[in-house]
Structure formats: C-alpha cells, structure tokens
TrEMBL record:
It comes from the Eukaryota. GO terms for molecular function: metal ion binding; peroxidase activity. Keywords: Heme, Iron, Metal-binding, Oxidoreductase, Peroxidase, Signal. Residues 91-342 form the Heme haloperoxidase family profile domain. Residues 1-16 form the signal peptide. This is Heme haloperoxidase family profile domain-containing protein. InterPro entries: Chloroperoxidase, Chloroperoxidase-like_sf. The keyword Signal applies. PANTHER family: HEME HALOPEROXIDASE FAMILY PROFILE DOMAIN-CONTAINING PROTEIN, STERIGMATOCYSTIN BIOSYNTHESIS PEROXIDASE STCC-RELATED. Gene3D superfamilies: Chloroperoxidase-like.
C-alpha cells in the first residue's frame, strides 16, 4: 500500500523539511484509521479485551508450578472433543516448505503456521490474518493475537501497509521512506527477540543471528523430558515446570558466556519466558486420555523442524511442521493475555532468580541488576510487583514504553506508531487495577552494552 506518494517523492529529492508536517498529520490519521478498522473487525469476532489476571501471591509458587497441567493456569481443559480440536494438515493446509522468497524466522509456532497456510505462506501477515490464523490453528486468544501482531507492526513491520514479517526484513516501499522497512522478527533484538531463548543463541554470541536453532540448546531442553533416546521420542514428557527450571539454567549460561547479556525490556522480561510456556500450552497434543494435553518428543521435534534422536538431531531450517493427528487446545479454553501474564508471573515466583533487570557490563559473569524500585520510581518493588494486577500492569506498560525507545526514525513516525498501538492496549489496561506507574527510568539500562546492541538483517528474507 502506498502512503502519500507525492510527498514521499518530494522527500527523496531532498525537500524533506517542508513536507514533514503534512506527513505527520496524514500518517497519524492513517495509523488511527488502520487501528480503528482492525479493532472493529475484531469486535465483530467477539474481541474480549482481557479477563482480569488477578495473579494471587501463592505461598507455594513452586508447588503450583509443578502441579500445572499443559493446559495453562486459568481455564482448565476438562474434556476432549475430537471434532472441535482436530487440526487439518490437508488440502489448503497441507505442508509445503517455504519457497525462496517466503519468509521464516525465530518462532517455530509462526513458521509451522505459515508452512501449513494458517498464516500467509509468504511470511508476512496483517493483524486480521494473524488473529484468525492463530486462533484457528492453536486457539490463541483473539486479544493476544491482536496485541502481538500490532506490536510487531509498529516495532519491526510495515506500519503503512499494516503488515509484519515473521522473519527477516520486509521489502521496503521506496515511496514510504519513513515506514515499511521494518527488520522483521529475526532482527528485532531487544524490541521483540531477546537473550536466553529456549532454542536460539543470544544474538551477540552468534553474529547477530538469533533466529537459527542451536542443536546444542535443543539437545539440552529435550533432556528435560526424560530418558527416551529413541527416534520417535514417544515416551518423553515435557512440562511447564521443567521448562521454567530450564530457563533458569539457560539464563545462567548466557550470563557466563555472553558479555552483552541483557534483560530488562518487554522482549526479555516477557516474550522470552512466554515462548518457553508457549511450547507447552500451544504445541501439546490432546486426547481422550490426556485432555489437558501432553507433549512428547515426537510432537516437540515436528514443531521445531528437527529430526533424529538425542546426540544426532538435525534442524531443517524453516521446515517446522504441525504433526499429523494433532489436536489443539479446546475452544472453551483459549490461551490469552491473562494466561501469558499469569504463567510468566508464576515462573518468576517459582524461580525467583530468573526475575532479572539488568545485564552484563561487557564481560562475562558481570551481571549487574537494576532494582524494580529504581526502574518504577519507587511505585513497585520485587514483592508488590506480584500483588493484585500489578504484574500485568507492569508488563503492558513496559511494552508500551518500549516503543519510542526501540523505534528508530523521526518523531513523526514514532508518534504514528504509538497512535496505532495504543488503541489495542488501552482497553486492556482499562480492565486492570493499575497503580500510577509513570515513566519507567529506562536510562538505567544505558550502562549495559547489550541494551544498545541492535544487529540488522541482510536484504534477503531469512
Ligand atoms: C503473533 C504471535 C506471535 C509472535 C509475534 C511471536 C513472536 C516470537 C518472537 C519475537 C520470538 C523470539 C523470542 C526469543 O528471543 O526467544 C518467538 C519465539 C518463540 N515462539 Fe513465538 N510468536 C507468536 C506466536 C507463537 C505461538 C502461537 C507459538 C507456539 C505455537 C510460539 C512459540 C514460540 C517459541 C517456542 C519460541 C522460542 C523459539 C526458540 O527459542 O527456539 N510463538 N516468538
């Protein structure tokens, strides 16, 4: 979609200043319209901003973590309904490996969705396509899909065209120089992608590549599921608690090996641990015997594009699959924003060492923490962070305030991005009982070299 072709053409011939005001007004209007249109469509599809998360302060968080099923923390999966939960991998949803011009990236859940046509096979999607496709395939909550996609559009996507890339940079439109050259998820380091991932290496330690699967990391997480070393892996069983413990180990390893290790942004405080939880909550299979879901080695490998057995695993880049005879979570139990907040929160309470704000200072094992009090101007501390709705409030404000911080470009573009994004977030925040959180003091992070490390992608798609 072309934005303001005449004005943009003038900008390219060097008359930038006289047109910036007009660009500002038009771009704002357009961003607002795009957000309003999308929200209207979602409303027609029963857009429910959020269930209250009201995370209780559990006395025995570790016990709760250990007892949690693969169905998540809020709504159980009480029965199995084959018709409702069956996921087609035939016809229009048949698997096809990506063509050379199709984009795939760091997220196996999205890659598998695109390889089966639940997301556009091109690897770029609008909010509506994201919400519909991920809801149909995984029963991912409508409001969660909308917020994740809207954020991807403003932070790393094509705001003018209203789409985002699940992998590398999108083709930029020469007529929209201020927009449309988002780096995609693959090169969204710290704004979306972060250190300490379940299967990808930290960007700094892998020449900026945080989207390729590390077989070593996969071997390590695979072991948490048991001792089945057979090729099919049917006897492995992965649980959310084992993954939370694994996250603690991975963090320690990152601190010991990555001089630029950083955690403090929405990406590292929420997206990275949430991705561990997504494996359990979205990739588990469901059956009559195990209605809450189970994840064995076979399904885990299929979703991650891995073949072979422990010791000789092989990753097939961009070839993540939905297994055959796989049944998603039931329609009565979508996994949404409240579940993300609750699951990430339980993880921090059960494994308190993993709640970190700060980073290494340029050498390994130099982790220096920033206190929650300092970051939030004294409004919250490590304990009150988990009272009432505070944690949910905190993560949404972290998300919102990160946008101007990570967006490069003129102020106009940043304002347009926030006017596009805020309508998605405001109804959510409105449902929560939030303390006055003001502006987080993100300048405290400037001391960490990893905070500013921002690798960019090649012009190619991966
Ligand atoms: C709009 C929806 C989604 C967006 C924008 C998104 C985005 C991302 C991003 C940015 C990462 C990199 C995070 C990191 O550095 O660890 C990631 C990783 C991951 N995502 Fe997604 N994701 C989405 C949906 C899903 C779904 C539905 C699943 C599961 C079915 C999923 C599973 C994962 C997993 C397992 C990883 C970690 C991969 C690894 O480290 O090997 N995601 N996703």
């Amino acid at each position: 979609m072309k934005l303001l072709p005449t004005l943009a053409a003038l900008v390219t011939v060097g008359l930038a200043f006289p047109v910036i005001d007009n660009l500002d007004a038009d771009a704002h209007q357009k961003a607002g319209q795009l957000a309003a249109r999308t929200l209207k469509i979602l409303e027609e599809e029963n857009f429910q901003p959020v269930r209250r998360s009201a995370l209780p302060l559990p006395e025995d968080a570790l016990g709760i973590s250990r007892a949690e099923t693969n169905c998540g923390p809020t709504i159980p999966c009480p029965y199995f309904d084959a018709k409702d939960q069956y996921v087609s991998v035939e016809g229009e949803y048949a698997y096809a490996a990506p063509a050379p011009d199709e984009i795939r990236g760091p997220c196996p859940g999205l890659n598998a969705a695109a390889n089966h046509g639940y997301l556009p096979r091109s690897g770029t999607a609008t909010i509506e396509e994201t919400v519909r496709g991920l809801n149909k395939l995984y029963n991912l909550g409508v409001e969660l899909g909308a917020v994740l996609a809207a954020y991807a559009i403003v932070i790393d996507g094509d705001l003018a065209g209203g789409s985002w890339s699940i992998g590398g940079p999108q083709q930029s439109d020469p007529l929209t120089p201020f927009f449309g050259n988002g780096q995609g998820l693959s090169y969204s380091h710290n704004s979306y992608e972060g250190d300490g991932s379940i299967g990808r290496l930290d960007a700094f330690t892998n020449n900026g590549d945080a989207h390729s699967l590390s077989i070593e990391k996969f071997e390590s997480v695979y072991k948490t599921g048991g001792d089945d070393t057979s090729e099919n892996g049917f006897d492995q069983r992965f649980t959310i608690d084992k993954f939370r413990a694994q996250y603690q180990e991975v963090q320690k390893h990152s601190i010991a090996t990555n001089p630029y290790y950083f955690t403090g942004a929405f990406s590292t405080v929420v997206v990275v641990p949430a991705a561990y939880n997504f494996v359990i909550n979205f990739m588990s299979n469901h059956s009559e015997e195990e209605p809450s879901g189970y994840l064995d080695g076979y399904n885990f490998k299929q979703f991650f594009g891995v073949t072979g057995k422990p010791g000789s695993f092989v990753w097939h880049k961009g070839q993540e699959r939905i297994p055959e005879n796989w049944y998603k979570r039931p329609t009565i139990s979508p996994y949404g924003l409240a579940d993300v907040a609750a699951d990430v929160g339980i993880g921090y309470l059960a494994y308190p060492e993993t709640l970190r704000f700060g980073g290494n200072t340029g050498t390994v094992n130099s982790f220096t923490g920033v206190a929650v009090e300092d970051l939030t101007g004294g409004v919250l501390n490590a304990k009150t962070l988990f009272e009432g709705d505070n944690f949910a409030c905190f993560i949404f404000v972290l998300l919102q305030q990160g946008i101007p911080h990570f967006l490069k470009g003129p102020l106009d573009a940043i304002n347009s991005a926030t006017s596009f994004f805020d309508p998605f977030l405001t109804p959510i925040l409105g449902k929560l009982e939030c303390p006055e959180l003001g502006n987080f003091d993100q300048s405290l992070f400037n001391q960490f070299p990893g905070y500013k490390y921002s690798p960019t992608g090649p012009a190619t798609n991966y």
